[in-house]
Amino acid sequence: MFKTNPTFRYLFLTLFLVFSIAVNSQQKKVEKKKVPVPKWKILGRFTFIFNQSAFSNWAAGGQNTVAGNVTINYDFNYKKNKWNWDTRLITGYGLSYLTAKGYRKTDDRFELNTLLGLKSSKYWFFSYFTNIKTQYTRGFDYSKTPELPVSDFLSPAYLSFGPGMLWKKSDNLNINIAPATARLTFVNDIFSGKFGVDKGKNTALSLGFNLAGYYKTNIMTNVELENILTVYSDYLNKPQNIDLEYQANLRFKVNKSIKMHITVHTIFDDNASGRLQYRELFGLGINYSFHEKVTY
User: Fold this and answer.
1) What is the pTM of this model?
2) 75, 140, 242, 293: most buried by Cβ count inside 10 Å?
């Protein structure tokens, strides 16, 4: 978790205000006629981004590189009577190859989030959410000699779940508040004593407050902005510290199959790292919707 010093508070408030302004600035659409509500909306999206550079007798110098990132996003939205069920899978993996250094991991992520809601008023639902988050392969800190392992498959792995209240304006705009969220952290024997798990143990349990927000909009023709925000505070271990994760995905549509993609991903989590975690990805690649379906 990250200590709430003044700099952090200002940054957190700024992110929260930006997210709030974006939510409140969504234009209200006047319905001219009542249209049927889809029972199922399914969208599966595959993205492949490739980068390559090669040098031969280049006076300015340079290093041959090959890099590729594969991302799969899968969204399931279900509505029937007062029930609402949203499930989102986000998974990706990327590698780069540098001459004389070999392969380096550039992306490694698996996240499954499912949220069940029972409608209580126009936009409010009683809710229950489950979130699973981990990575596929071992990661290293290459600044150390020899290189130091910092993560592994299912180590850490996070399982969070709990009841709450969901405010949902649409499939592209919602906020879930879960004040009694249980979180289990799993590590293997190599990483025992890290990620908030006590030395000699492989699991840790926390209970806290969780807020998750999602907002996606077209900011202009063929330009889509997606915002994902998660805030967590552990009641059992330094509740004044706050975990914060924010991801922004900006997509520029070139044509039906090609898009330019920019991802900015920021994490504050003192159990995983005492410093700000930051990841940025930029590239032009193939975008393919492999499963797109709407049923009534």
Assistant:
1) 0.82
2) 242
Distance CA 262, CA 223 (A): 11
CATH for 6-23+111-295, among 2.40.160, 2.30.110, 2.40.50, 3.40.190? Answer: 2.40.160
What are the φ/ψ torsions at residue 15 (nearest 5 degrees)? -60, -40
User: What's the CA gap between 117 and 85, in Å, rounded?
Assistant: 6
Q: Per residue in 235-288, pLDDT tens?
A: 988 888 899 999 999 999 888 888 888 899 999 888 887 788 888 888 888 888
CA-nearest of 83, 86, 40, 59 to 292 is 40
- CB–CB of 155/186 below 8 Å? yes
Cβ atoms of 166 and 124 within 8 Å: the answer is yes
- Cβ 260 vs Cβ 252: under 8 Å: yes
